[in-house]
Amino acid sequence: MIMKLINFKLFYLAIFKSLIVLGIGGCFSPLNSSNNQSLEPTISQSSQASPSQQNITQVILTEGLENPWGMDWLPNGDILVTERPGRLRIIKNSKLEPQPIQGVPEVLSVGQGGLLDIAVHPNFSENGYIYLTYSSGTRRKNQTRIARAMLEGNQLKDVKVIFEVSPTKRGGQHFGSRLQWLNDGTLLASIGDGGNPPLKIDGELIRKQAQKLDSYLGKIIRINDDGSIPENNPFLDQENANPAIWSYGHRNIQGLTIDKKTGQIWSTEHGSRGGDELNKVVAGENYGWPVVTHSQEYTGGEISDKRSLPGMVDPLVVWTPAIAPSGLTFYDGDKFMDWKGDLFAGGLVAREVIHIDLNDAGEIVAKYPIKFEQRVRDVKQGPDGFIYVLTDDSNGKLIRLEPTK
Predict the structure, then answer these.
(1) Which helix (H) or strand (E) holds 90?
(2) What percent of the chain has pLDDT over 70?
(3) Cβ atoms of 134 and 114 closer than 8 Å
(4) Which residue, among 202, 218, 357, has the nearest Cα to 288 in the 3D structure?
(5) Which listed residue (174, 250, 270, 355) is catalytic?
(6) 247 and 287 in contact (C-beta within 8 Å)?
(7) SS3 category, 20
(8) What is the distance between the alpha carbons of residues 389 and 386, in angstroms, rounded to a whole number?
(9) Most buried of 41, 260, 327, 381 (most Cβ within 10 A)?
(10) Cis peptide before 41, with omega less than 30 degrees from 0?
C-alpha cells in the first residue's frame, strides 16, 4: 500500500535537486581515481604514482575560504579569490584579508551557481580591470554572466555586465564559467549546457542546446575585453548563429588553459556518470555532446551509442569513473623543470591534481595523481612558477606545491 503512494516523477526530481545542492557537477565516482579505466581506446586512463611526486611539499598558505571557486594574481603578487556564495577575497603575503572586496554583483547562489571565476586583465597596471563570471537571476530563470569592473583598493567600481548567456534556464546546474585570456588579448569563457534531464527548453532536453548555434548553452565563447565580438570569430557571418561562439558541443567545461608558446587551448569537461573529457580545443569545432559521448544516463542506459562521428572532435582522454574535472593549468614555469610543458588537471570527486605528462609533440605519455584531503576546485600556475591549488570546502584552502628541499 505504501508503494502505491509514491509519485516516482517527484521522487526522481528530489534526487536531482539533492545533487544540485551538493554541487558535484553531475559526477558519481569513487574518491580514488587512480585506477580509472578508459573508454577511449587510444590511451590508458590509469594514473600511477611517479617518483617525482614524492618530492612535492604541499604548503597551506591560507584556509577559512568558503567554497572558493577561482583565483588570479594582481601585478603586486596579491591573489584574488572568489567564494561561491558571492564574496571576492584578497590574499596578501599569504594572509587572507578579513574584509571581502566591496561592490561585487549580486549572484544567484544555488546548487553549482554563485560567484565563479575571475580573470585579471593582462594590462591591469594600466586599466585596473578585473572580470568575474557568476550565475544571475532566479531558480526559475537564470544565466551565466560576465562582468567587468575596476578594482580600486577594497572596492569594485564601474561594474558592467559585458556578456550574458541566452537562452535563460531553470535550476542550479551547469554554468560552466572558466575564463582564459588568449595571446591576442581576447577572452574565452566556457558555458555549460544548462543541466541534466528532466530539464527542457521548448519541449526537448536542455542538453541538446549544446548542438544549436543560435544558443550559447554548451559552448565556449570568445569576446573582446569590452564584451564586443572579435571580427574573426568562426561563426560571425553564419546565418542564425550567435557571433560570440568559438566552439560547441560541450557539456560543462570547468577546466580551461592555454599553452602560451603555441596558443593551443586545452579543456577538461564534466561527463554524466563517467565520460569526463580532456580536449584540445580549436575554433569552430564541434565536440559532440550529447550526440557523441562516453557518458551514461544517471537513471541508467546510454545517452548515445555513438563514440565518434565525422565532423566531431574525439577527446584525448576519457575518465570513467569520473574525476569531476575542475581547474586546469599548462605548466611553463621554472620551479619544476621536469614538469615544463605538462598539464595539471583538478578533480573534485577524485580529490586529486592529475599531472598529465606531455611529450614535445603534445602527446600524452602518462598521468600521475597528486592526492589532497579536500575536493580540488582550481589549479593554476602562479607568476612565481609554483602551482597553486584551491580546495572546495566550507573551510577551503589555498595550497602551494613546492619542490621538497
Answers:
(1) strand 87-92
(2) 87
(3) yes
(4) 218
(5) 174
(6) yes
(7) helix
(8) 10
(9) 327
(10) no
Give yes or no: 174 in active site: yes
Cis peptide before 51 (omega within 30 of 0): no
Nearest one of 342, 345, 331 to 382, comparing CA atoms: 331
Q: Which three cell numbers stand for residue 234?
A: 568562426
- Rounded average pLDDT over 381-395: 98
pLDDT tens sequence across 96-117 = 999 999 999 999 999 999 999 9
Interval 192-215 mean pLDDT: 97
The rounded mean pLDDT for the chain is 89
Distance in angstroms (rounded) separating the CA atoms of residues 165 and 214 = 11
φ and ψ at residue 209, rounded to 5 degrees? -60, -25
Q: Where are the beta strands (DSSP E) in 214-347?
A: 219-223, 245-248, 253-259, 264-269, 276-281, 317-319, 325-331, 342-347
Beta bridge partners of 118: 132
pLDDT of residue 66: 98
Give all strands (DSSP E) within 272-386, no chain letters: 276-281, 317-319, 325-331, 342-347, 352-358, 364-371, 375-381
Instruction: Residue count of the chain, please give it.
Output: 405
The single-letter code of the amino acid at 247 is S
388 pLDDT higher than 60: yes
**Residues paired with 367 in a beta bridge:** 356
* Banded model confidence at residue 47, pLDDT cuts 50, 70, 90: low
Residues 6 or more apart whose CB falls under 8 angstroms from that of 329 comprise: 257, 343, 344, 379, 380, 381, 387
Q: What's the DSSP call for residue 8?
A: H
d(CA 101, CA 80): 9
